[in-house]
């Protein structure tokens, strides 16, 4: 027997659950503004999620997937991206979308059942939310291949959950990215649950990062409740990809503190005790602790921030609630670039049914 | 006997089938402790254990192929897709394997599986959660496609589907999952596959439909009845193979037919029914065969879904058109 | 101008499109150095380089999703499936993404891709290599489905498909890949999408068909012509959206219609055509609308495939039945 | 950074290309009959393949996929199985099917376009040939799950090509096998080509065995031209699986010396020089060399074997050529367990068309 290949998977953390550095922080963390921006984005995301859930509870929004407790992942990822990169989120990365310039009202419109929500005014090339789990991973390699063909120094960043790693699409996309050394970074937002199915029932693999080994690309783990670590590890992967060093997979370890969506009741399948324990590790308190320990953040800052987030979110909610539905005929208007004549009759019929 | 909902009837039939036959297994996402996103399997894992009620990893293609293997080994897997929008990765296994295993091995191996999926709009669900794509399945050789439209038919047809030795795609109209309720005796009596159900008799016009649309169809029939026009309402129930005999004989009597479905008009199962009438029922037709269907568009998000789906009003208008022919 | 085959016409159109538009890319299995299992891409990698003619890993789902990403970025990918039997894993990407990207983003992103696959029987190919499942695609919103039936139409329609800003499923009838040949000027002129082609005019009966079946349909028409009966033969060409106007106007003149397709009868595209006639063309009908189609069975292996596929004889018999109506 | 996991992939060989042992042989190799059986099965397979190709060339068989040069893989695998196990081959494992008791005439009937070829008289539970690449891997885990549920000491064995490892199905099946520690062994018949696509264009992974790491199951490489190594390594995996130790992936490294199928012309895309070099490593000469070096095989044995194989194959070919086609109505007869009445009319029509 001879050894044909060997591999290791590393894990990175900078701030532990108590907000204390476990190793010297990366250079960007010396800049207060950078850290504060991460912190603000996480708090805004949490405020936004709370509002969306309450809109749903009061019948003014459809099903919604909160990212409570997972804010560091999308925020850290988006913070590591450049404007010209392309983001391909699943459905729990609103924190990243906001940082990318997607407007809160757009996200609300989407979950409120209005297609306009995916016509982002901001990042025009970013992909809309992807509901069929894992099916956007092949799109990410398509986008990355486009960058490669045009010799653009841009990176596609695709985020999906632990459950998504069981889908062949995700594996196939990583495998293809490996063959062509595409500028794409895959991030597993491992919140340890896929609705009611715990991480351990998705796969016998010790880590999800090692899924990369099958694709011949680097895989690594990061503490997904440590925004600094996510920002750093994903950032390194993105910059490597940008300069032609190929794709990577980053597994961010976090935890879904909320129900799966507003349509879910997690108490049916998981222990409160587990959830309480995980509250001790959540990302916002952790970064706040570090910021205040290092004298970069005080009570007044916090109060101002909370007020600011609340008013931004309220304004977005009002705008959302005031937004009219699309006219029914809108369902024909972007179906094709130009409506085939075979469909004009149906459109007329709908128009008549709508305004009889 | 007690009044139960359609989704409860599904659960009752699953439990009954599992009780009477050890080889019946349930597979899917979140069907175990969580009891399924619509609670169709609620409590079954407690009753039958995790071996028989298995949460799979998140992969529809995988668990469909898994069911093919289990079926070939003599089990009767019942797989659940959370929503029809997630069933497409399974089509490869259905066309290339489930529907042909018996045929290609001349009966040596077979595939007695049931593929369950909630489908259709009307519950303000998110994107990809509201489509009606039953026609894709109704064209695949070697399988059956069944859609129940009431708790009793859900119970009886699901039992029949599970006991059937061939693959069955069983689509559940989720808009009527929780209402109306119906009395059901849990007597293990199955309903006949491959047969339409006559929901209402009438001499003037035939309304052919299935799934949740029977609500609007029956309402339209009642409205017309108040005007003295009697519509015969047929629930197709088995979309493949199609019981054209019942439809032909009804339209033979009424001379008029309106077909109603939620799915996009073009290439929907309504086309096959109309085609069958245009061939074997033409001589009796007094009026054009009209279809009231979803538009040939992407199912819109929830704000517009009610504009997309056939309404009682659209059905009525079409029936009146058809009745207007001399 | 020279006489070329249908598969050569495909290659000519691909080359032309790549020549005139840098964003046109080819993706698929063995399309590079090997030139595709039917040689549709022969020589193109030499001419356009491996960046634009890319052999993908063996995964149909992957390369379809890849094309969605490329399309959203402004490329015009043309993906090849070696046989239609391997296209099913791609349906998820087609229904859930390609067909709706434009709609769901209100035109912000779109998906100008072409999905090419040889289909149909008659070349004694192995299992899973001979099916005709075009109806599955013709029901999917947001896409087009095109089937050429001659070298010239293959050239013109493929150019149109590639230039079209929306996703097109382009199915190539491989039975007529190599014969008959036809003169083609490589002039870059596309053929109209969304329109039927009138292959033969006639006053007595309308024959509606597509793909390789035009061979048998035209033969049947000739046979009848010798008896003084003139059949109008229509090549549908665009199966979605369907040009019912042309068909209606023809049947309006002839009063009789026979539809021919290789795909299984039930739920085939013929059903939609018959349904359209039974609605908007009923008043002119002198006879039932008949379909001559594949049976509702699994496509048999090669020894029996000729028994499965519609023959000139079956078409003739059906036409005579239809003509017998007073 | 801490290390989260590490992995190695081993490779096993017993006989090198010259037929010389590179390490002490496994115990079974002490039994002459066992080795001779492996040898015979490979020679029979090669003889059968040659006949099938010639039947195709003369228009008497459809497209056929030869296993020239790869005989050690299916033969070694099937030799490691017990009768009660279930074999799920792709389309190039006739050597394994024959050893399992599938009759040569059945394989010819299949490729000759007659469904009867998949109604094996021998191994009734074995799966038929699988043409859609990789789609049988999920069936294998279904079969293995059936064994597990019934607590039977049986193993499902699934073979597929290097190309198939790019399909999500294969990954998904391995991943599921890992979660339930199913009694299933996956074998990659890595012949280095998927039609014209070389192994290196399928994946950037250094080995295909490491695809197992993503699934959390053991993966290993074996010299696929060394029948003893294949028999041994796959045998160990099967016996581990049988006793509840879970699934495994074995990558067998071999080479496709023939065209992909009779419909292919490999000279379009690969060098003769590469093929010639690989002829030096083929499995039959290697085992024969070892057998004759150790005095277990002589010229007379070889001649007798060749004659025997030829006559078996000729007999099968004659039986095949004499076999009638199924009647056309057969296409309805096993479509469902009982033909739905909606289809009787079509069956009658076909019958009439056939015997007008
Ligand atoms: C293909 C598919 N199957 C099923 C679903 C229903 N569903 C929505 S989210 C979800 C679980 C996803 O888990 P994971 O990937 O871990 O993401 P998370 O929700 O935890 O963020 C499921 C099963 C879906 N959206 N898509
Ligand atoms: C899903 C699918 N796509 C394409 C094909 C056409 N095809 C047949 S064999 C083959 C290559 C298979 O390569 P590999 O898995 O390495 O097996 P090998 O033929 O080398 O034994 C292809 C692309 C197919 N049969 N199935
Ligand atoms: Mg999760
Ligand atoms: Mg290979």
How would you describe this structure to a colleague?
The complex is a heterotetramer, with two copies of chain A (356 residues) and two copies of chain B (326 residues). Chain A is an alpha/beta fold. Chain A has two domains: 11-325, Rossmann fold (3-Layer(aba) Sandwich), CATH 3.40.50; 330-356, no CATH class. Chain A contains 14 helices and eight strands. In chain A, helix 1 packs across helix 12 (299-322), helix 2 packs parallel to helix 9 (227-242) and helix 4 crosses helix 12. The radius of gyration of chain A is 21 Å and the shape is globular. Chain B is of the alpha/beta class. Chain B has two domains: 2-184, 3-Layer(aba) Sandwich (Rossmann fold); 197-323, Rossmann fold (3-Layer(aba) Sandwich). In chain B, 37% of the residues lie in helices and 20% in strands. Chain B has twelve helices and 14 strands. Chain B has a seven-stranded mixed beta sheet, with helices on both faces. Chain B has a five-stranded mixed beta sheet with strand order 9-11-10-13-14, sandwiched between helices. Chain B has a two-stranded antiparallel ribbon with strand order 1-8. The longest helix of chain B is centred in the first third of the chain and has 15 residues, at 6-20. At the B-C interface, helix 4, helix 6 and helix 10 of B face helix 4, helix 6 and helix 10 of C. Strand 1 (2-12) of chain A pairs antiparallel with strand 1 (2-12) of chain D, so a sheet runs across the interface.
């Amino acid at each position: 027997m001879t050894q044909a290949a060997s591999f290791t998977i590393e894990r990175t953390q900078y701030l532990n659950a108590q907000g204390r550095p476990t190793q010297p922080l990366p250079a960007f963390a010396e800049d207060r503004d950078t850290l504060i921006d991460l912190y603000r984005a996480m708090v805004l995301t949490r405020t936004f999620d709370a509002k969306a859930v309450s809109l749903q509870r009061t019948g003014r929004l459809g099903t919604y997937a909160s990212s409570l407790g997972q804010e560091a992942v999308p925020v850290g990822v988006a913070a590591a991206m450049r404007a010209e990169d392309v983001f391909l989120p699943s459905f729990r990365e609103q924190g990243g979308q906001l940082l990318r310039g997607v407007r809160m009202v757009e996200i609300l419109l989407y979950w409120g059942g209005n297609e306009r929500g995916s016509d982002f005014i901001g990042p025009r090339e970013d992909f809309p939310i992807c509901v069929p789990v894992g099916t956007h991973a092949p799109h990410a390699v398509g986008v990355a291949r486009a960058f490669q063909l045009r010799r653009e120094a841009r990176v596609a960043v695709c985020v999906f959950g632990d459950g998504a790693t069981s889908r062949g699409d995700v594996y196939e996309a990583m495998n293809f990215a490996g063959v062509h050394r595409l500028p794409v970074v895959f991030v597993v937002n491992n919140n340890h649950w896929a609705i009611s199915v715990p991480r351990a029932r998705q796969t016998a693999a010790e880590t999800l990062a090692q899924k990369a080994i099958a694709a011949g690309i680097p895989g690594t783990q990061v503490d997904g409740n440590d925004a600094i670590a996510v920002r750093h590890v994903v950032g390194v992967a993105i910059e490597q990809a940008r300069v032609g060093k190929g794709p990577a997979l980053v597994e961010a370890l976090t935890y879904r503190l909320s129900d799966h969506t507003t349509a879910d009741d997690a108490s049916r399948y998981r222990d409160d005790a587990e959830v309480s324990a995980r509250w001790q590790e959540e990302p916002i308190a952790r970064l706040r602790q570090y910021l205040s320990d290092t004298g970069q953040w005080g009570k007044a800052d916090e109060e101002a921030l909370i007020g600011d987030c609340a008013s931004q979110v309220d304004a977005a909610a009002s705008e959302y609630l005031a937004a009219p539905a699309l006219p029914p005929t809108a369902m024909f208007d972007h179906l094709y670039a130009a409506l085939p004549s075979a469909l004009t009759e149906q459109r007329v019929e709908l128009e008549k049914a709508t305004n009889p | 006997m007690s009044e139960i909902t359609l989704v409860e009837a599904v659960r009752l039939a699953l439990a009954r089938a599992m009780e009477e036959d050890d080889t019946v297994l349930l597979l899917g996402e979140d069907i175990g402790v969580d009891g399924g996103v619509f609670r169709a399997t609620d409590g079954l894992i407690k009753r039958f254990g995790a071996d028989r009620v298995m949460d799979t990893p998140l992969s529809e293609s995988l668990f469909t192929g898994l069911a093919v293997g289990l079926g070939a080994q003599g089990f009767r897997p019942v797989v659940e897709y959370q929503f029809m929008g997630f069933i497409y990765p399974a089509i490869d296994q259905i066309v290339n394997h489930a529907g042909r295993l018996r045929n290609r091995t001349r009966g040596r191996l077979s595939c007695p599986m049931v593929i369950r999926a909630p489908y259709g709009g009307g519950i303000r669900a998110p994107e990809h959660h509201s489509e009606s794509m039953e026609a894709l399945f109704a064209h695949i050789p070697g399988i059956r496609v069944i859609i129940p439209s009431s708790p009793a038919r859900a119970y009886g047809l699901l039992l029949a589907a599970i006991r059937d030795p061939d693959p069955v795609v069983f689509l559940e109209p989720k808009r009527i999952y929780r209402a109306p309720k119906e009395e059901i005796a849990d007597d293990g009596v199955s309903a006949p596959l491959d047969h339409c159900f006559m929901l209402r008799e009438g001499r003037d016009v035939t309304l052919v439909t299935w799934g949740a649309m029977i609500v609007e169809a029956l309402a339209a029939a009642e409205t017309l009845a108040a005007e003295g026009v009697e519509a015969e309402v047929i629930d197709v129930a088995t979309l493949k193979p199609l019981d054209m005999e019942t439809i032909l004989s009804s339209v033979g009597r009424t001379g008029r037919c309106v077909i109603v479905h939620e799915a996009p008009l073009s290439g929907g199962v309504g086309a096959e029914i109309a085609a069958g009438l245009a061939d074997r029922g033409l001589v009796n037709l007094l009026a054009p065969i009209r279809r009231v269907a979803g538009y040939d568009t992407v199912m819109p998000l929830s704000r517009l879904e009610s504009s997309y789906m056939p309404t009682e009003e659209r059905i009525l208008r079409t029936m009146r058109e058809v009745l207007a022919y001399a």
